[in-house]
Amino acid sequence: MVIEYNDNTNMNKGFSLILFYAAFNSNCTVNKEMLERISVEFNNITFYKVNTTSYYRVKQDFGVMRIPSYVLLNDGKEVGRITGNTSSQVLKTFLRKNTY
After folding, report:
1. Which are the contacts of 7, defined by CB distance < 8 A and separation ≥ 6?
2. What is the pTM of this model?
């Protein structure tokens, strides 16, 4: 399950993977669908998606310059990121490497 970010979202506990996306971007649509599929495989990670049109401030706070972008946090601190379109295999490898 992927949680849509809102003003009450707390991403400071455990591992969190955030997808920064824009609704108008077709690559972002593909990445959102892929993230939904991958999220069921990783019980140790909470998955979030942030609409950068609605939450531009959050995009700026994380220094996201390009969408789609993934930012991996552990207890609120960044441990890695992937910028741009990616494959499910690359994303899974990234998650395994950085969360186990």
Report:
1. none
2. 0.93
